[in-house]
Amino acid sequence: MSENEILVGVCGAHMRGLPLNYQLLDLDAKFIKEAKTVKGYRMFELTRKKPFRPGMFFDGNSEFYVGLEIWSMPIHNFGKFMKLIASPLGIGTIFLEEGESVHGFLCEPYYTKGEKEISKYGSWREYKCQ
Questions:
Q1: What is the pLDDT of residues 70-124, one digit of tens each?
Q2: Which fold has domain 5-124?
Q3: Residue ranges of the Allophanate hydrolase C-terminal domain (predicted)?
């Protein structure tokens, strides 16, 4: 990766073939690889957001890992990408099983109250294929 790129981790509707993937493609992002977070993340289905998507956050008491995709985006497009992200989602640091970290989607935990926890499925794709 060059200094002109930023790695972005996505775990839901922005993944390849899913409804918001076009936002990454329109900003010249390139798929790099599939990855998994370190143990400790939780994921919930956010049914109040359209399209439905997951909300993920770190909880050191969690026993789960979450599968995600890593994309490389030109750094000059990252601000445009940030403008597309609405509360309760935001961009923070996601720690990967391989010891790396990337910038990626995190959800405000308050918003998951009353939503279905789907952490046990391991990824949004696995949950949607159940």
A1: 999 999 999 999 999 999 999 999 999 999 999 999 999 999 999 999 999 999 9
A2: Hypothetical upf0131 protein ytfp (3.10.490)
A3: 8-128
Residues 119, 58 contacting (CB under 8 angstroms)? no
Contact 31/16 with Cβ under 8 angstroms? yes
Q: How far is CA 69 from the centre of its chain?
A: 8
Q: Can you tell me which residue has the tokens 């998507």?
A: 53
3-7 long-range CB contacts below 8 Å, 24 or more apart?
A: 3/75, 4/74, 4/75, 4/76, 5/72, 5/73, 5/74, 5/75, 6/72, 6/73, 6/75, 6/78, 6/103, 7/32, 7/70, 7/71, 7/72, 7/73, 7/102, 7/103
